[in-house]
Specification:
Layout lengths: L2 E6 L2 E10 L3 E6 L2 E6 L3 E4 L2 E4 L7 H8 L3 E2 L2 E2 L1
Length: about 80
C-alpha cells in the first residue's frame, strides 16, 4: 500500500491509499476511510492538495485531521 501526503488547512495529513479506481481514491486514516473523487486531489510535487471545488464534510475533515503528524508523531 502506498502512502500519500495531503495538504489540508496548512498542515499535512499522511494517508495510506486503501483503494484506487479510475474515479475515486480511498484514503485510510486512523479515524477511518475517506473516499475522494480523483479530480479532487491535485499533485503539487511531493504532496497533494485538495481542489477548491471539493467541499469536505465535517466527518471527512475530522478523519483527515486524524492523519496529521506533529514532529514525527501521529496525533
Amino acid at each position: 500500500m502506498r502512502e500519500i501526503s495531503v495538504l489540508i488547512g496548512g498542515a499535512v495529513a499522511h494517508c495510506k491509499v486503501v483503494r484506487e479506481t479510475g474515479r475515486v481514491v480511498a484514503l485510510g486514516t486512523p479515524a477511518g476511510v475517506v473516499w475522494l473523487p480523483r479530480w479532487a486531489l491535485i499533485p503539487e510535487g511531493s504532496y497533494y492538495r485538495l481542489s477548491c471545488r471539493y467541499a469536505l464534510s465535517p466527518e471527512e475533515w475530522r478523519r483527515l485531521e486524524s492523519a496529521q503528524w506533529v514532529s514525527g508523531f501521529s496525533i
